[in-house]
Description:
The structure is a homodimer of 167-residue chains.
Chain A: H1 12-20, H2 23-33, H3 39-46, H4 50-62, E1 66-72, E2 77-82, H5 84-87, H6 90-103, E3 112-116, E4 125-129, E5 141-145, H7 156-166
Antiparallel strand pairs in A: 1-2
Amino acid sequence: xxWEQLDQQPCSLARTLSVVGDRWTLLVLRESFMGIRRFDExxxxxxxxxxVLADRLKKLVEAGVLDKVAYQQRPLREDYRLxxxxxxxxxxxxxxVNWGDRHMSDAQGAxxxxxxxxxxxxxxxxxxxxxxxxxxxxxxxxxxxAPAFKGQLLPVHWQAxxxxxxx
Amino acid sequence: xxWEQLDQQPCSLARTLSVVGDRWTLLVLRESFMGIRRFDExxxxxxxxxxVLADRLKKLVEAGVLDKVAYQQRPLREDYRLxxxxxxxxxxxxxxVNWGDRHMSDAQGAxxxxxxxxxxxxxxxxxxxxxxxxxxxxxxxxxxxAPAFKGQLLPVHWQAxxxxxxx
Lengths: 167, 167
């Protein structure tokens, strides 16, 4: 499989990575979630070359994750703002950040703390089931292929489970 | 900033990406969460070269995300199993998958469905506050620099907010 074919794979993770799988891209998004919008600010904060930054921003606009918005007409000045599709990446970004907070921090601890303004507490994100609200653990989540992909995507031991459930 | 320096940045996302920021790496982890353990299975399912796969598995073992475990002595055969540090990546992986389900699916819909075995419902993950349990939205989460990093990490408008809160 080549990276150029990633978005054609019947796998939501592969398709997601075809958009955000580049590391600079996720750092650009981190800045967006901090409220950074202007090219020069991204550049200064990330220490990335203008060429790489322009490329990543362009791809995020093409993917519908960022919007390029004119905030001044003469001279024309544009900035980059998260779309609702982009804002939907927040759980993934926060989950990655929280993992780093927990497992990659040095003696100084997590560099940035997250405070939930609704409850006022320092917190981290917890992933729960959209239906019952319970905390999700990998062994509590069963995988099922959509009808169009029956028998094609899951490892053999999952196939057996699916067949077993039907009998 | 160079990628080799990523894990030294005072940013939990950058540090996380120094471990999982490679796209093959996240696909390897997807397979791990599906229960894949053996080199040949990873290779067959991912369609990746043995060289690249060996490199990514080695790095994940070095990072403490996977454990290399002997499952047979003569001849020695080893497989790769998620550590608890690795299992802690589940929320991030599921959040990325769910974003792809929602925003990158074609007419056939999400290729794989997730069923929560505790409640029996088809579901997706929702990120909630560890303290109050409410669903998290980016605008409800305030950022604060840890004392060691005061004035160094957040954009100016966040600095102002922090100063304003103290006054």
